[in-house]
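Notes, p. 3: input format for complexes.
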Amino acid sequence: MKRQLVVIGNGMAGARAVEEILARGGGDAFDITIFGDEPYGNYNRIMLSHVLSGEENDADIFLNALPWYRENNITLHAGVRVERVDRYSKHVFAADGRVVPYDVLIIATGSHSFLPPMDGLYTPSGSVRHGVFTFRTMDDTRKMVQFAQHEHHRRAVVIGGGLLGLEAARGLQAYGLGVAVVHSGGHLMNAQIGPDGGAILRRSVEALGIEVHTGGRTTAVLGQDRITGVRLRDDTELNCDMVVVTAGIRPNVDVAVVSGLPVERAIVVDDHLRVMDEEDIYAVGECVQHRGEVYGLVAPLWEQAAVLADQVTGVDHSSVYLGSRTATKLKVAGVDVASMGLPGPERDTDEHIVFSEPSRGVFKSIVIRDNKMVGATLLGDSRKVAYLTQAFDQGLPLPEERLSLMFDLGSPGEEEGVAELADSAQVCNCNGVSKGTLVAAVQGGCRSVPAAMDATRAGKGCGSCKLLVSQVVEWAAGGAVEVDPAASYYVPGIPLDKAALMSRIRELGLRSVSQVFAALAPGSAEDAKSKMGLASLLKMMLAGQYIDERDARFINDRVHANIQRDGTFSVVPQMKGGVTSVQQLRTIADVAEKHNIPMIKLTGGQRIDLLGVPKEDLPQVWADLDMPSGYAYGKSFRTVKTCVGKDYCRFGTGDSTGLGISLETRFQGIESPAKLKLAVSGCPRNCAESLVKDVGVVAVEGGRWEIYIGGAAGAHIRKGDLLVTVDTPEEVTLLAGRFMQYYRENANWLERTYAFVPRVGIDKIRSVILDDSEGIAARLDAAMQASVDSYVDPWSERDDPLTPGQFRTSLPLTVLPQVPVR
Ligand SMILES: Cc1cc2nc3c(=O)[nH]c(=O)nc-3n(C[C@H](O)[C@H](O)[C@H](O)COP(=O)(O)OP(=O)(O)OC[C@H]3O[C@@H](n4cnc5c(N)ncnc54)[C@H](O)[C@@H]3O)c2cc1C
Ligand code: SF4
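Output follows (822 residues plus iron/sulfur cluster):
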């Protein structure tokens, strides 16, 4: 019988320990249960800095999303906190009442942000004040982004000028906020770099427009109803609307303390990662104190997880963890900071090599002890970082000519440096990938840098090791590295660009996603990341001939509603051109009342959104509404926004409402590489905002209509290009449809028109759409007509679910506020 392995904490260390255990065959020995009090799969916390700055989407930073747990037979209790452990009866007790027995227990509870004492930090009821944020979790990051996006929030103060504080400050600037950093140390990042480097770093940070106050301690958060500023120890007051506290972390040890486990600064473990004096309890990650050290970075936890897995599975009982050397890099574009080991010399015999060029923001310092590098700081020029990191990690022999450690003066050439590395040398610290793993990936067929990165995850953390990763791949491939052909693939799993893929699909008469994989994927292997793009392409190409397979779709497309943060869905019935009727309004009101809809909201696309509908209620809500879907989800044609138009408006020259309704009727729900939003305005005053839509139509003098394409007013703003001015609504309909079909056939998957139109060029598009320069106009029109003819309202599936689980209750993600009226 399998033994029970329970893990408390579903963060980077807990999940990594489980991955290592599975890699050693632990899946056969254990039934694995993981508790995580965050309501998600396991994500790369490091990347939250990039999510905050808008460089990454939070959906893209998952290391193991929910299917991974299912595929590995792991029971995940996401969003469930463990409160205590009974070490004698060997059970864990969770906050939701679950009691789970274990044979082996792993505690991986990580840390939480430390909030230093300050007046005005808490509300009278004891919660942290609205407008004060910590920066630790995905929820923290989302809340910060939401708050920062408010246009009346103009200034932020970040408390703490370490790595996290500087990354937070830079991230917040992306929302147009003015940011000040208050740091109690004498210089920024004083835990990692010395005062001289700190002074240069300060200049670089200030050059980004970030205000810096060093040696300043915040004593109070000011303001009554909302935050107005902070006060420093010397009574200076800094105005702000939001405060972000990044003043350090504290290990999460509550569970260990109440369960009677040994805790000093953190949970005390031995060299096997076994909790001191315990037989069957291990701990790993930031909640751990090993030989007096508590680490706040990921590299140590990768090393710990490997040893822990050797021990738990019994694969290698001699495996020991002896502590880690740590190196860090600031993830702020434009400010290169890498530091490892000691910031400066400690002993009289330590060698200290320093180069400083403040005017260029460059500072380099290296500390050498007994001919080994024990510390380095690189600011403003990190070209040597890869070699120095390895010299530091591996204790490599150093060149006689010390200066060559900093500059390319006949130092070990990069190739030589790579060749010298041991197989076990860690290349990517964020994801714990060694040189040996990368070399094996190259030997296993990854001939390009991105392919090796995909296969191993190397370089997919903070990104600072990408140079070294490519050097290792190049070296391992003997210089025969290929440029990644996958860059031109329409979907990653099929080695064809869009035109070739479409022509092969036509030639072979393929009709479903699985048929495409079987015929065209290497080894006929199905690739989850390719399914949505393929499903959309097939539907576009084949119209009614397409064979639908539900697993090829994203959740929104499977249940025809838009998933919300808490796992409920939003339901938007069709309201063509934004026009409604008494009957429709009454029905919507009745449905909202009957189903206790927590939020009714008008959307930006002139429709009514019923928010907070559980998945299992969707069919009944649609049935009660008895209206067609408004397509507020999915990669498809969505709405046509219209203005009042000539019937009612004093300025109107065209029937914008009528044309909008007719366009929406015609193109409703057609599949597309990305969403399509349209608008029609009745005169150049443009009340429907037609110039910033994928296709925008404007009535102009003389009863004519201008058609604009490639506009956007979301995260990206672009005024559309004028395609043509035509005389009749019929011409608008024909040419808009022809353009959309051309876009559907030629755009990359998820490429919006605002990227497609400038990429292809308006002149080229005009020549194809208007002058029929390629002789395809009639075919484009016919293909669009076929899609229009094959339209079926997806909400008709309500009576006949396609799969048993289509409308089954889904896992709650997070609790959203109930806001009936604001
Ligand atoms: C914004 C940011 C940027 C960072 N950048 C870097 C970087 O560039 N380089 C680097 O090396 N490191 C970086 N770090 C640090 C790195 O993320 C951590 O070292 C790493 O996540 C620690 O892993 P862990 O599993 O120990 O803790 P965590 O990842 O915090 O995981 C612990 C998990 O346990 C859960 N938990 C706690 N108590 C319980 C309980 N009682 N029951 C159930 N679940 C519980 C927590 O909710 C959490 O999900 C960064 C951290 C942040 C926040
Ligand atoms: S765009 Fe012109 S016609 Fe339409 S509402 Fe505005 S002013 Fe009136």
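Residues 8-14, 35-38, 45-46, 48-49, 81-82, 108-111, 135-136, 164, 252, 255, 285-287, 296-299, 301, 331, 462 surround flavin-adenine dinucleotide (ligand 1) (CB under 6 Å).
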